[in-house]
Write a structure and sequence with these properties.
The chain has 409 residues and is mainly beta. It contains 3 helices and 38 strands. The radius of gyration is 23 Å and the shape is elongated. The N and C termini lie far apart (55 Å).
């Protein structure tokens, strides 16, 4: 059995201070016995880092060098500049991925049809910091569909712009400890894209301080949720362009019954802005995946009612700012599954109004709506408006604390 503490102790994180040697090593020198350094730069493989110069061959050579000994932790530091990549994509077979730059100083440009960085096999730790990415199809993706129960996977101070499929995605059945902090996600104008598409057992997943500006779906969580997932202090906006489905899509469990169904999934201190919002757009969606695509980033929601085989339990939305357009026709939450229980909606500031807090499928059989165990605690809506014309499509929950009349009669 993998000991997570032992693996975490071996994780390597890249310092971004300091400068490269005034005499860069050549690839021939790097191939000498005992010459593998702890840190390298693209310039050691021929990259210029200039906007007018193609860096494709240099980045391909760098990837080949890393793959030569995938168990060795080698940090890649990008000096300031623009790196154009026009190849077929970088495919790494390494256990430790360490890429970094001083934030705001480096842009990597890739074609819209290229999966820029594919991480294969068991990746023990990831640290990608400070880079700006422009273009790409799937910019960074973990290819393995097996369990990847290892160390932290950290993405910090990054910008993803003009991608066409996804910025960060995985395919594993068990992939805890994703940490995404202070990143920006803005897909190509007309693309059908998901900002972050991550599933498998997601214990310890945290998205914090991120801005999502333009995606068909900003964040896809699941399936195989497990729990202890936090979305905190993020902005969910809707800049114009392309198809819109939802800000947060929760793909419920369909393999574990009611177990590992999302307990401790908390959305807090976030802004659901009305910038560019369509009147018929729901903000949080609970729906199963549709289709049989191999990649999680290519699977989109089944927007129809399904049976009793899908489960979501333990979602909390609290302390958020929730805005809407004036003539909003969609509920804040839409659920297409029969088992959506233990939901807490508390102390959110709701501006303007939605026709309902949530529309959901009425559970069948012995499980009745009254058994969903929801708690809804409303704050006073601004300007005397009601935040929600109705609570749900049945207007039945376990407990409603609404002294201000924020929910309609």
């Amino acid at each position: 059995m993998i000991n997570r503490r032992d693996v975490l102790a071996q994780s390597v994180f890249l310092p971004v201070s300091g400068s490269a040697s005034s005499q860069p090593a050549t690839t021939a020198a790097l191939s000498e016995p005992n010459s593998r350094p702890s840190e390298i730069t693209p310039q050691m493989f021929g990259a210029a880092g200039e906007s007018a110069v193609d860096s494709t061959a240099a980045l391909d050579r760098l990837a080949a060098y890393l793959n030569a000994d995938g168990k060795t932790a080698i940090a890649v530091r990008f000096p300031p500049g623009v790196y154009h990549y026009r190849g077929a994509g970088l495919s790494l077979n390494v256990q430790h991925v360490c890429l970094a730059a001083e934030p705001g100083t480096v842009t990597i440009v890739a074609a819209s049809t290229v999966d820029f960085l594919t991480l294969n096999g068991l990746v023990a730790s990831t640290s990608i910091r400070g880079l700006n990415f422009s273009g790409g199809a799937k910019v960074i993706t973990y290819s393995s569909s097996q369990a990847n129960v290892t160390g932290f996977h950290v993405f910090a101070d990054l910008e993803f712009r003009d991608y066409t499929r996804s910025a960060i995605s995985n395919n594993a059945i068990d992939h805890p400890y994703l940490k995404v902090m202070r990143c920006l996600f803005r897909a190509s104008y007309s693309a059908q894209a998901i900002g972050i598409a991550f599933g498998g057992y997601l214990d310890g997943m945290t998205l914090e301080g991120c801005t999502f500006q333009r995606n068909t779906i900003h964040v896809k969580i699941g399936p195989r949720l497990s729990g202890s997932i936090h979305l905190r202090d993020c902005d969910f906006l809707n800049f114009s362009g392309g198809e819109r489905v939802a800000d947060v899509w929760i793909a419920p469990n369909v393999t574990d019954g009611g177990n590992n169904a999302g307990g401790g999934l908390v959305v807090s201190e976030c802004k659901f802005g009305n910038e560019g919002q369509r009147s018929d757009q729901t903000r949080v969606l609970v729906a199963v995946e549709s289709g049989n695509a191999a990649a999680r980033a290519d699977l989109y929601p089944e927007l129809r009612w399904v049976g009793d085989g899908a489960y979501m339990s333990g979602l909390t939305i609290k302390d958020c700012r929730i805005a809407s357009v004036g003539l909003c026709t969609a509920p804040f939450i839409t659920s297409y599954i029969g088992h959506f229980d233990r939901f807490l909606f508390a102390d959110n500031v709701c501006e303007n109004s939605y026709p309902a807090l949530c529309n959901f499928q009425i559970p069948t059989g012995a499980k009745q709506v009254e058994q969903l165990r929801w708690v809804v605690r409303m704050l006073a809506p601004p300007f005397g408006r009601r935040s929600f014309a109705r609570l749900t499509n049945t207007d039945k929950v376990v407990h409603l604390d609404d002294p201000w009349g924020a929910v309609g009669a």
